[in-house]
């Protein structure tokens, strides 16, 4: 008889689903991914997810012991519902857990995607063996998660805090979070792009000015490319983003003093560009707290962090 | 034979020492306090502390089981040292724990005063029975502590985070914490007083203008008194403080989602004045997190919170 110890991790995003099959020791046996057309609705989406799970189970030649789902938020973790008219349009109050439990006869863990990714990094990535790991994902949005002694930090009623929305500048732009000048409104990819378009329109010169014939085509990557060519506007934007990120991390340091902070997401692919300003801005807080001893580094698992963490969440159900 | 279960809590401040004797159930049997002249040095200070401990032990008619000290920071909790040339001048690298252990033959707990006060509130005050309690003390400084499941939250190397120094306004005043525009630099008593003096000088009218003959005499209480009389400058300052406090709490909510936040310290004695602006400013964050369900209220034990918490820290050594 097959040992039933396979852990399945699923990362459900707005455009793709990934799944992986893992050993209890955290070794990835096989992984797969497929696009998901959220607009076709949850029933079609569930079929896509099941097909993917079947594929990785089959490829691993073992039986699943538990399944974990890391899902793009907002989710209602306690009731096991996806409440997501934003990135999964039409998926409001959708229960995907019960069908998966019934289909595979195993327990199913359910986590926010930022929590799952951080849990994955602590299990098998850049946060292994570290007590207090804070992870910040800077991409289309700014997501955050905090893992304490290997467990996801949960707030009031077990709900997920939204560490990407700490307000850092009272004069900053309004955000859907209700506040203004929060971290996401200032350093997410779209926020950087918006400021680049404004700078381009104001100056109509330099690297950004040359892109003005197609302002829709200006994104954060444009700014980073311009900065690498030494464009003054792009460099000043990069410095601003770096200083704002440092102020955000200063709040996190002052409140939590984590042992390690992991940075990930599209914007951090150009981390080398803003690292010098970022590190020198952070160093000034090293007076009343040991700020310079907090180990800030890039995450290690890339886009696979989510399936690792979902599998680990599944494993924690069995512990 | 006397049952040896008395818990002694000591609150060591820059100008006063308090001590209390408690039952294991958290009942205060007797308390006492005395001024301390920190400038006379640690040896004299230690004598004052011992005298106070002797008094409360004698008055309670029982034997001490453990002693806890909550001390004005910075302290080196792990090595048991007071490192405090600021509020305890001359007390640098002072070990008061070893002499107390030797003198009373019991274990001695040692905590930062903000941590001790919060632990006291969770033990017997306004945080009883609540899982995640964040406490903010707004007085001469802004201190913070976080108690999770009855235990003091500790950061990197077990050190005390400095939640009163989260940066909230990039254009705010410089602070000794290394940053600028941190919560303490904007809403502490002295920060409020400084802004009042500036407003008075600029306007030289109204309630504050009338105090300009003695600017040294203007403090936060002056501002609150002026606001109660309807003075426009004082009211605007109160609204500003309320909005800044709300932004600070928004960061705490976004990162931690605590179940309850306790406010204490001199500035909060006028909480009724800034409560309306404060609550309406906080309510706007109730979009992606359940901000309105975080129970924000005044702490309950007043200046005795420190001795309660120090006694509870002592008790935790025996558990």
Model description:
The structure is a homodimer of 319-residue chains. With 319 residues, chain A is an alpha/beta fold. In chain A, 39% of the residues lie in helices and 23% in strands. The first copy, chain A, is built from ten helices and 13 strands. Chain A has helices at 42-60, 97-104, 113-124, 183-187, 189-203, 206-209, 220-228, 232-256, 271-283, 305-318, and strands at residues 6-12, 16-22, 28-35, 64-71, 75-76, 81-84, 91-95, 107-112, 132-138, 142-148, 151-152, 260-264, 295-298. Chain A has a five-stranded mixed beta sheet. The first copy, chain A, has a five-stranded mixed beta sheet with strand order 11-10-9-12-13. In chain A, a hairpin with a 3-residue loop joins strand 1 (6-12) and strand 2 (16-22).
Mean pLDDT of chain A: 93
Q: Name the assembly state.
A: homodimer
User: What radius of gyration of chain A results from the CA coordinates?
Assistant: 21 Å
Q: Greatest interface and its residue counts?
A: A-B, 48 and 48 residues
**SS class of chain A:** alpha/beta
Q: Architecture of the largest domain in chain A, CATH level 2?
A: 2-Layer Sandwich
| Order of strands, widest sheet of chain A | 3-2-1-4-8
- Topology-level CATH name of the largest domain in chain A: Nucleotidyltransferase, domain 5
> How many domains, in number, for the residues of chain A?
2
CATH superfamily of the largest domain in chain A: ATPase, nucleotide binding domain
Q: How many helical stretches of chain A? A: 10
The percent range for strand residues of chain A is 15-25%
What's the total count of β strands of chain A?
13
Shape descriptor of chain A: globular
What can be said about the biggest beta sheet of chain A? Answer: 5 strands, mixed
User: What is the string of SSEs of chain A from the N terminus onward?
Assistant: EEEHEEEEHEHEEEHHHHHEHEH
């Amino acid at each position: 008889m097959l040992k039933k110890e396979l852990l399945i991790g699923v990362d459900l995003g707005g455009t793709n689903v990934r799944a992986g099959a893992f050993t209890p020791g955290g070794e990835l046996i096989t992984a797969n991914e497929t696009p998901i057309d959220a607009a076709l609705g949850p029933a079609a989406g569930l079929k896509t997810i099941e097909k993917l799970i079947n594929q990785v189970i089959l490829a691993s030649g073992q039986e699943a012991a538990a399944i974990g789902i890391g899902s793009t938020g907002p989710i209602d973790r306690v009731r096991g519902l996806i409440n997501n008219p934003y990135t999964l349009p039409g998926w409001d109050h959708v229960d995907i857990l019960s069908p998966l439990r019934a289909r595979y006869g195993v327990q199913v863990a359910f986590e926010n995607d930022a929590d799952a990714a951080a849990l994955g990094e602590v299990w098998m990535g850049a946060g292994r063996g570290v007590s207090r790991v804070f992870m910040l994902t800077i991409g289309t949005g700014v997501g955050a998660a905090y893992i304490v002694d290997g467990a996801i930090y949960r707030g009031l009623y077990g709900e997920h805090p939204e560490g990407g929305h700490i307000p850092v500048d009272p004069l900053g732009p309004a955000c859907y979070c209700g506040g203004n000048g929060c971290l996401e409104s200032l350093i997410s990819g779209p926020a950087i792009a918006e400021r680049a378009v404004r700078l381009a329109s104001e100056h109509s010169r330099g690297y950004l000015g040359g892109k003005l014939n197609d302002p829709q085509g200006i994104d954060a990557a444009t700014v980073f490319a311009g900065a690498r060519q030494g464009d003054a506007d792009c460099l000043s934007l990069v410095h601003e983003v770096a200083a704002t990120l440092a102020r955000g991390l200063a709040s996190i340091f002052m409140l939590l003093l984590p042992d390690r902070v992991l940075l990930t997401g599209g914007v951090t692919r150009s981390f080398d560009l803003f690292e010098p300003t970022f590190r020198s801005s952070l160093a000034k807080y090293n007076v009343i707290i040991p700020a310079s001893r907090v180990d800030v580094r890039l995450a290690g698992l890339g886009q696979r962090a989510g399936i690792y963490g979902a599998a680990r969440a599944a494993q924690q159900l069995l512990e």
